Amino acid sequence: MNALRQTVPTPTYEDLLDIIEVQNFLIAELQGEVDNLNTQREKMFSVPPVIENGVVVQLGRSFY
Asked: What is the pTM assigned to this prediction?
């Protein structure tokens, strides 16, 4: 069974720096999306809900 195993090369320092750079880029992209969603949520909840007969018929600017 040991013959079937392939050895994985040890990542170099430069490889690790590249991985960190990509992770930081992805984190920045996701943070931008989170900020956008937070802005949309704030806009939606800035308007009080419309309740008719005990049922929410409008939440923010979207209709149900």
From this structure: 0.55
